[in-house]
Structure formats: structure tokens, C-alpha cells
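Hey, resending since the last one bounced:
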Amino acid sequence: MKRLTLALLTLLVLGATASAVLAQQPAAPPSSAAPAAPASPAPAGSKIDRGDTAWMLSASALVLLMTAPGLALFYGGMVRQKNALATLMQSFIIMAIISIQWVLWGYSLAFGPDKGGIIGGLEWIGLRGVGPEPFDAYSKTIPHTAFMLFQMMFAIITPALITGAFAERKKFSAFLLFTLLWATLVYDPLAHWVWGDGGWLKKLGALDFAGGTVVHISSGISALVCAIVLGRRRGYGHQPMQPHNLPMTVMGAGLLWFGWFGFNAGSALEANGLAASAFLATNTGASAAALGWMFTEWATRGKPTVLGAASGAVAGLVAITPASGFVGPLSSIVIGAVAGALCYTACNLKSRFGYDDSLDVVDVHGVGGTWGALATGLFASKAINDAGADGLFFGNPGQLWTQVIAVVSTIALAVVLTWVILKVVDALVGLRVSDEDEAAGLDLSQHSETAYALGGGQYGEFSSATGPFADAMRAAEAKPRPSMSH
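The C-alpha cells again:
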């Protein structure tokens, strides 16, 4: 643990040092032998638009809100009480570690000068050359820095989504190392493929307005690999593992819905009609999916559940994400309704396959993201966005095939590299906590804290556990608590 902490800090410090040194060096003059310049000047006539800039900074804040508190509360309420703080911590600390990674090298790898359509170069390491002026390839009316910040928020939430698959059993040290490696080796190259200037999927014509492939399929498929490699939770299938605080989960779902307007509408990169159209599609898709999940559950189980409605809304937000800037409201209803029913069905089939995806990341983000990416190839219309393409239902069957290629290539990248990263992390620090630590709960075993100091005592969860952590918990419960009166 100490070695990992030292290694991570050393890596970040060295990266910051190297970036600072490079940032002070003048850019190489363009020549046939020199690498691409860090940034090209804004084209003639390009000018910062204050309205667009204000909107993009606001959208960036909305997307950051999706990770914490949104996702943190959504996931935190679904785990057992003894793991609540650890789950909140994962979403919270990802905001810190990916923010630094993105500044040092992540943004350069994802959006830097193209290297063969596969990855961005390191010319922008430490944000060298990323300044307040527009950059034509990405930000014609907003500062390049504003575009970088908006994309940072996507890089933050994507690995946070994966944490729901290995909730309640992964070492915190392993989580930190996995997050840093996964962001660098999976997210950054994939973002370049789909959104980077020169990325091969972008040149192929794949449509992904706000992250169906880059965010949701990548995280959902990686979550499946994590669930399989880590194995089931202790007692899974034999002990009850109900959510400990559903009101927290519903609050998180509401914050996700709210923040998602920045996620999708912000991807227009301007305060314009396309942003309004994406905003409408986002709300419509989420609403249809919440109803689709609720009515499907009602028909099959006899009663609708609050958790089901919240999960359905998130599934709809996932599915409409890649299509939000290319489809109208009626298409959004179809995409959302199908997503709600489809993701609900996928959740019910999970037990047949035997893997333990703790918080249904695979079924909501993997299945929902895949459906959304393919649905974009069905429902996309140039009448909504003339910079896009028509889909199958608007006379262009080739677009559906392009979307299939994007989906398959995303799955292949996520499966292979996630498996490799997990094996490397396991060899270095180990992936899972011990059975004793898992029984005690990650709050206590990984952070020496408990989520609820007053009321809702933890003793019952540790009464049959053995070992120093369980003993410490029982001792803590037995101590008289100080009065809170003044």
C-alpha cells in the first residue's frame, strides 16, 4: 500500500515536472521533419463568443456534478451500509486523480495532434499550447481551454461508472491504480478514435454525439470484465444484499438527470438550436425509458418499484446520449422506451450468466449504450443536424453498418485492455480485499470510518465476523458516545 501510494505520487509529480519543463520550451517551427505544432492558430474570422463560452463552462460544471454528488449518491445508496462511504469515496476521488491525469497527459493523448488515427501525440502534454484562443478543430467560438475542461468532465465520469461493477470488494489501492491505467490506455485512445481530429472512427463517419461508445459502452464492457475477473462478492446469491438507502439513490438519479443536460446539450459546443434539440431529446429519452422500465417491471412482477423507475431513467439517458444531437423528439421516445424495457430485461438475465455486477453497470451502460449507438444508425437525420448523417430509417443503411463497426471496435478495445490492466494491478497490489475485510465492510477496512455514526448501528453486520476489523467495530459500537447538545 505504501509502495503504491509512493509510486502514484511519484508518477504524478514526475509528470507535472516534465510537463512544466516542456511548457516552457518554444514550439518547434513547422517543417517536413518536425512534429505537428502543438496548436494551430484560429482561422481568420474566429472569435470568442461570450454566450457560447458561458454555456460551455456551465455545461462543464453540470457534467462534473454528475460524478459527485450524482453518481456517488446513486451508487452509494445501492450498496450495503458497511460499504457506503467507500463507494462515495471512489466517485469523489476520481474527480481528483483524473483531473490531474487529464492536465498532465490525458488531454494530449485524447485530442492532441493525430498519430495514425489511433492516438493523440504528446505535443500538448501539461496543456502546452492549449490556451485561451479558439482551436478550429474543436472550439471555433470558445477558448481551447474551455473545450479541454468540458472534455475533462467526460474523462472523469467514465471510469467512475465502472466502480459499480466491483463495488464492495475491491482494494482501494487497486482501484486507484486501475483508474489511472484504464483512463490512459482505454479512455484516452478511444476518445481520440471517435472525437479526436484525425481519429479513425471519426473519419469513418461513426456518430457519437456525447459518448455512447466512448463513455457508456467502454465503461459497461469494462465493468463486465471487472466483475468476471474479481469474482462474486462473499455470500452473493446466499445472503441478502439489498440497497441500504434508496432515497439516496433516487436523489442521485435526479442529479444525474439534471447534469445530463450539460453532458448532451453541451456537446453542441455552442449555445444554439442544436443544443436545444439535444436538451429536448435527452429529457424525452429519459422520460420514455423510466416509463418503459416501470411498465415492464409492473407487468412482470406485479408492482412498479422506485429503484426500477430511477434505473430506467438512467438507462434512457445512456441510450439517448450518442443520438441526442442527431434525432428528434419522436425518435427519442422510441429509443428511450426500448432502452427501459431492454435494460430491465438484461438485469433479470444477469443471474443466469453467473457474474456479480454489483450495481448493474453492464446492463444499464453496456446494454443501454450499445442500443443507443445502434439506434443512432437507425434514427439519425440530417434534418436535425446537417453535420451528421441520415440513418437507416432515413434512407442510409450504410450508417447502421458504420455504427456496428464502432460498437465492435469499442468492445474489443475495452475487453482486451481492461483484462490486461486488471492482471497487472493484481500482480502489483492484488485486486480484492480479504474475506475478513469484506465481511467487515470497505468503510472500516479500507478507510477506518463508518458512514453513520449516530443511529442505524453497524453491530448487526459484524456480530458474526471475526478478526481485528470486526473486533474494532464491536468495540466502537460499545463505547458511549458524547452528547451532541450544546
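Strands lie at 114-115, 119-120.

Sorry for the duplicate.
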